[in-house]
Amino acid sequence: MPDNQTVSSPQFSRAEYATGPESDTCRICGQTIVGGYYRVNEAMACASCADQAQRGQPRDSHVAYSRALLLGIGGAVLGMILYAAFAIMTGLVIGYMALAVGWLVGKAMLKGSNGIGGRRYQITAALLTYAAVSVAAIPIAIGISIKDHKPLVSQHRTQAADDNATDGSTDGADNNQAQAAEHRQRQNMGAAVVMLVGYGLASPFLDLQDPVHGFIGLVILVVGIRIAWRMTALRKLVVDGPYKSTPATV
C-alpha cells in the first residue's frame, strides 16, 4: 500500500445521526426536524408548523354556519335543476344523479364554512340533498306531462277561471265579492303549491309502487345523502407532542 494513502478508522466516540426523510422531515414544510417533533393528524411536523396549525385551525361560528347554509341551498337548487333538466331532456330519470346532488351540496357547504364541519352541518346537508332530489320530481312530472299534452294543473286553472267569470258578473255591484273571489283564488293557488311540494317530498316513497325501481332509487338517494353527510363531517385537527426524536447511530 502506498505511503501517501491514509486509512481512516471509525470514530466510535462520536455518534452520527441518520437523516432519512421518513424519520426527521416535517411533512408540512419539508424541512429537517432538529430536536423534538410533533404529530399533526398523525403526520410528523416541526414545532413551527404544529404551532401554526393550532393557531390557524378554523372554529365554528354562527356566521360560518349561515354561509354554509346559504351556499348549501344554492348547491341544492343547482343540483335539482340539473337533475330535472337531464330527466326532461332525455326522458330518463337516472337515480345516480342523486350522488352528484349530494356532492354539490356538501362541496357548497364546505366552501361556505371554509372547511368547517360538524353535526349540524351534516344534518343540514342531508336534508338539503333529500329535498333537492325529491322536489326535482315536480318539474320532471310537469315537463313529462307537457310533452304528453296532459297538463297537471288544467283542472285547477279551469276552476279558477270559473270563479273569475262568476264573480266578474257581480264585480260592479259588490266589490266585497270580487275581493272574496280573489282571496279564494289565492287560496286555491296556495293549496296547489303545497300539494305539489308535498308530492315532491313524498316522491321517493311513492315510487315504491314499483317495488324494484323504487327501492333501487331510494337506496341511491340514501347513498347520495351519505356522501353529503361524510363531506360535512367534523374535521378535527389533532396536534400531539412534543416527542423526543430517537437518533439512529451508525
Strand order of the largest sheet: 2-1-3
What sequence of helices (H) and strands (E) makes up the elements?
HEEHHHHHHHHE
Largest sheet composition = 3 strands, antiparallel
Q: C-alpha Rg, in Å?
A: 32 Å
Average pLDDT, all residues: 76
Tally of individual helices: 9
Describe this protein's structure.
- By secondary structure, the chain is mainly alpha-helical.
- The protein folds into two domains: 21-58 and 237-243, no CATH class; 62-231, no CATH class.
- It has helices at 21-24, 47-55, 62-90, 97-113, 119-135, 137-147, 154-168, 175-206, 211-231, and strands at 37-40, 43-45, 239-243.
- It has a three-stranded antiparallel β-sheet, covered by helices on one side.
- It is elongated.
- The model is unreliable at 1-22, 153-161 and 165-171 (pLDDT under 50).
